[in-house]
Amino acid sequence: MEYTAMSLVLSLILAIVGGKIHQNKGYSFIAGFLWVAFLGLLGLLIVALTKPKVSVETNKENKMYDENTPIQ
């Protein structure tokens, strides 16, 4: 009984961590949470290796975006 409760708590904590990682990369918290909740450590690996979303605002902040350059 104790092992089941500890396993459930550990799974919940890992799912929350996966959700936060996914959210920090610009995606939905719920999507990251569900990846880890259903797939466990494999889901955490998938979320961790997901590339971050890149937006125009991010590019402007990083000065990778030049307003004088035409869109190709």
Structural features, described:
This protein is mainly α and 72 residues long. The chain is 68% helix and 0% strand. It contains four helices and no strands. It has helices at residues 2-24, 29-39, 41-49, 56-61. Helix 1 runs antiparallel to helix 2 (29-39), helix 1 (2-24) runs parallel beside helix 3 (41-49) and helix 2 packs antiparallel against helix 3 (41-49). It is rod-shaped, with a radius of gyration of 17 Å. It starts with a helix and ends in an 11-residue tail after the last helix.
Level of helix content? 55-70%
Rg from Cα? 17 Å
Number of strands: 0
Main pleated-sheet profile:
none
How much of the sequence lies in strands comes to under 5%
Structural class: mainly alpha
Overall average pLDDT: 86
Taking the alpha carbons of the first and last residues, their distance comes to: 61 Å
Low confidence ranges: none
Oligomer: single chain
SSE ordering: HHHH
Shape: rod-shaped
How many distinct helices?
A: 4
